[in-house]
């Protein structure tokens, strides 16, 4: 066997030159968008580097361009705690709110001087953090909840516009100071053109396509195998610095001739010098009027950009002023996201179909000529009810304007009259018979229509069973929407009571249901038999009876048989139960089929303890609570019910009269308002403790 040859100094030097050249061309191509050599020449350099490293593996370095993709997939993701929290931004939607933003800044700083702002596009991607130590990329992490994210270094290393070593591509300034530690934040995104290419490839290979570029970027970063990320066109714009520590010889604000940044604009310049890409569409402006002018100009460019944006980010430019302004509980006081109006496009209504909900409500849904709006392809939009159709003057065949309200929910905004004189239009009429079961459709009030079939209707059965098994009701783990559909379609269950009579052999006959999965589901069903009366009552799916109303009924009557026997007058005595809700409750329990299902549920072993019913109290009488964000240990309806049982009032908006704000993850403008009015705020753990102290 021939021993591998030892590298000479010429090989070591050639390897060094090749890495520097490739890093330089990566910087020119991916960061500056100014390539100076053709792709074939770049490929030749890369092939030569690979050849030499294969011949002399001892000379491979971790920052070599060939080492972007690791050798093996990871087994899972590691949690990362951010040294400095990655906070979200408060949002404004118009000039008035932006004026209020500046007014708060001036008040806190006690100044009338001109304020300079740094403005940039709000890219619709995935927020990430990059950590460099002595210039070398050592970790990349997702934002997560702002405090804790996930380590995605293996995937981020594959992005060619992210340098593995700071300054390695900048041949202009060889004496550039490199920080001892740099933690930089930014947005990883997928270009629109790259997104189209990825979906075309997926369709050709029979794979699953992505809904929009943001989902594609997020899904790619969540891959355990970095080879997948390496094949997808991800890019990154850096927008802020979390940690910047220069070498110890830095004095008087400088280090090795490099001035430390005093403004965000200076920071962007320094990041570019280190090889990190910042958005070229950024600008530094003075005052609100110039911020608005920037946002309007950016909105006009929106359609021509090769990446998705949903607004402009406006930040105070001077770093010292940022430090003086500080932070709220979850947002910086010196930054704001100016959100663009929802995108609107025109399309054609091809048909209107009618869907049957859990309580039998029949809802018209527009089937549209597929159209791309707000980052997704939209082919359906709810029309809510027949009154909305009449208000719009909508017909099948009409050209309509579709808006993604809040860039999320598709909505028909208006009908475009005279758009197509040759279009054949037809009126939209509520069917006389349910499209799911053929039962008569009956009016319910002035606006709504309902299927009269009750649980005979398969559509209502499916929705009723899904609701009964959901988190706020009996919370049967593993019994999701698709499985409920299978069980109903195969005739294994017809109502909620049948769930508790399922056998392992029946479940194993279903597609993709093995012995272990079947046994796990049966164990979850058995566990759900022990519940509470409020959960059971809510799970029955009585129209207009949410978790709070269910708890109020149980608190008032104390037992199910008393609720079932109550007439409308007795039901109306319950707090927050009016004549409509009372009529629904009385009608539900007067139905023999519903009473039979309840009896079968109890015979199957579903039970609860009446001692768990909450007693009414006035311990919080006179106090006003506002709930915002997502609660994880209970639903907001349940939280509302618990507060009301203690005598508190739960309001929908924050005012000076508010006593407490309970804020879960994702809390929005209500939290900002509470902070502005200096109203006490509780997170969920504190709220749970608060409730336990008062019961």
Describe this structure in words.
The protein is an alpha+beta fold. The chain has six domains: 9-67, Helix hairpin bin (Helix Hairpins); 90-339, D-amino Acid Aminotransferase, Chain A, domain 1 (2-Layer Sandwich); 343-427, Beta Barrel (OB fold (Dihydrolipoamide Acetyltransferase, E2P)); 457-529, Orthogonal Bundle (DNA polymerase, domain 1); 533-604, DNA polymerase, domain 1 (Orthogonal Bundle); 624-694, BRCT domain (Rossmann fold), CATH 3.40.50.10190. It has 24 helices and 24 strands. The strands form seven sheets. A five-stranded mixed sheet has the order 2-13-12-3-11. Strands 16-15-14-17-18 form a five-stranded antiparallel sheet, with no helix packed on it. A four-stranded antiparallel sheet has the order 5-4-7-8. A hairpin with a 5-residue loop joins strand 14 (344-356) and strand 15 (362-373). Helix 12 crosses helix 13 (481-489) and helix 17 (547-557) packs parallel to helix 22 (636-645). The radius of gyration is 31 Å and the shape is globular. The termini are far apart. The model is unreliable at 249-257 (pLDDT under 50).
Topology of this structure?
Layout: H1 9-31, H2 39-55, E1 79-81, E2 91-92, H3 95-109, E3 116-123, E4 126-133, E5 136-142, E6 148-150, H4 153-156, E7 181-190, H5 192-205, H6 213-221, H7 226-230, E8 234-245, E9 254-255, E10 258-259, H8 264-273, E11 283-286, H9 287-301, E12 309-316, H10 319-325, E13 335-339, E14 344-356, E15 362-373, E16 376-382, H11 386-392, E17 399-405, E18 409-416, E19 441-444, E20 448-451, H12 458-469, H13 481-489, H14 504-508, H15 515-528, H16 533-539, H17 547-557, H18 560-565, H19 568-571, H20 579-590, H21 592-603, E21 624-628, H22 636-645, E22 649-651, E23 660-663, H23 669-677, E24 681-682, H24 684-694
Parallel strand pairs: 2-13, 21-22, 21-23, 23-24
Antiparallel strand pairs: 1-6, 3-11, 3-12, 4-5, 4-7, 7-8, 9-10, 12-13, 14-15, 14-17, 15-16, 17-18, 19-20
């Amino acid at each position: 066997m021939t021993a591998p040859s030892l590298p000479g100094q010429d090989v070591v030097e050639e390897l060094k030159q090749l890495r520097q050249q490739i890093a330089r061309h990566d910087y020119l191509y991916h960061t500056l968008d100014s390539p100076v050599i053709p792709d074939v020449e770049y490929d030749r350099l890369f092939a030569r580097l690979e050849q030499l490293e294969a011949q002399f593996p001892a000379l491979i370095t971790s920052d070599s361009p060939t080492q972007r993709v690791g050798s093996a997939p990871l087994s899972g993701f590691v949690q990362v705690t951010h040294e400095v929290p990655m906070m979200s931004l408060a949002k404004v939607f118009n000039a008035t709110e932006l004026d209020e933003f500046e007014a708060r800044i001036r008040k806190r700083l006690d100044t009338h001087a001109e304020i300079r702002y740094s403005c940039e596009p709000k890219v619709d991607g995935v927020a990430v953090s990059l950590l460099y130590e002595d210039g070398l990329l050592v970790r990349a992490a997702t934002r997560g909840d702002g405090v804790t994210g996930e380590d995605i270094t293996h995937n981020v290393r594959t992005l060619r516009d992210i340098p593995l070593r700071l300054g390695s591509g900048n041949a202009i300034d060889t004496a550039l100071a490199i920080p001892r530690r740099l933690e930089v934040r930014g947005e990883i995104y997928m270009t629109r053109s790259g997104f189209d290419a990825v979906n075309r490839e997926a369709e050709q290979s029979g794979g699953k396509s992505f809904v929009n570029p943001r989902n594609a970027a997020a899904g790619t970063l969540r891959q355990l195998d970095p080879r997948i990320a390496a094949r997808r066109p991800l890019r990154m714009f850096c927008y802020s610095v979390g940690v910047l520590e220069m070498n110890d010889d830095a004095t008087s604000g400088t280090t090795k001739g490099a001035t430390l940044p005093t403004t965000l604009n200076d920071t962007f310049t320094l990041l570019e010098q280190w090889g990190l890409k910042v958005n070229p569409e950024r600008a530094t402006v003075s005052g609100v009027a110039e911020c608005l002018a920037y946002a309007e100009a950016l909105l006009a460019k929106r359609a021509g950009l090769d990446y998705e944006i949903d607004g402009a980010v406006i930040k105070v430019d001077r770093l010292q002023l940022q430090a003086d302004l500080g932070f709220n509980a979850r947002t910086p006081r010196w930054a704001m996201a100016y959100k663009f109006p929802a995108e609107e496009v025109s399309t054609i209504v091809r048909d209107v179909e009618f869907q049957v909900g859990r309580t039998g409500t029949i809802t018209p849904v527009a089937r549209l000529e597929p159209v791309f709006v707000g980052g997704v392809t939209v082919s359906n939009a709810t029309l809510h009810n027949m009154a909305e159709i009449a208000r719009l003057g909508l017909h099948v065949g009409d050209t309509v304007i579709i808006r993604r309200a809040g860039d999320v929910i598709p909505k028909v905004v208006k009908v475009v009259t005279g758009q197509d004189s040759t279009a054949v239009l037809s009126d939209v009429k509520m069917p006389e018979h349910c499209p799911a079961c053929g039962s008569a459709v009956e009016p319910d009030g002035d606006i709504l229509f309902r299927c009269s079939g009750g649980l005979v209707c398969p559509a209502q059965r499916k929705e009723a069973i899904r609701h009964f098994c959901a988190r706020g009701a009996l919370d049967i783990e593993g019994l999701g929407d698709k499985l409920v559909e299978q069980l109903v379609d195969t005739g294994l269950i017809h109502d909620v009571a049948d769930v508790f009579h399922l056998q392992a052999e029946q479940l194993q006959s279903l597609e993709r249901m093995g012995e272990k999965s079947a046994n796990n589901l049966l164990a979850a069903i058995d566990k759900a038999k022990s519940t509470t009366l409020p959960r059971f009552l809510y799970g029955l799916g009585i129209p207009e009876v949410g978790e709070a109303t269910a708890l109020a009924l149980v608190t008032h009557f104390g037992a199910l048989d008393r609720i079932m026997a109550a007439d409308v007058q007795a039901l109306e005595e319950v707090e927050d139960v009016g004549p409509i809700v009372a009529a629904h409750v009385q009608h539900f329990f007067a139905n023999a089929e519903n009473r039979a299902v309840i009896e079968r549920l109890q015979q199957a072993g579903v039970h609860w303890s009446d001692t768990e019913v909450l007693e009414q109290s006035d311990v919080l009488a006179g106090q006003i609570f506002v709930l915002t964000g997502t609660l994880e240990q209970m639903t907001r309806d349940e939280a509302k019910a618990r507060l009301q049982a203690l005598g508190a009032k739960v309001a929908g908006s924050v005012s000076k009269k508010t006593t407490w704000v309970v804020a879960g993850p994702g809390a929005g403008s209500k939290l900002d308002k509470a902070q502005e009015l200096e109203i006490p705020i509780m997170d969920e753990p504190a709220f749970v403790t608060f409730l336990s102290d008062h019961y």
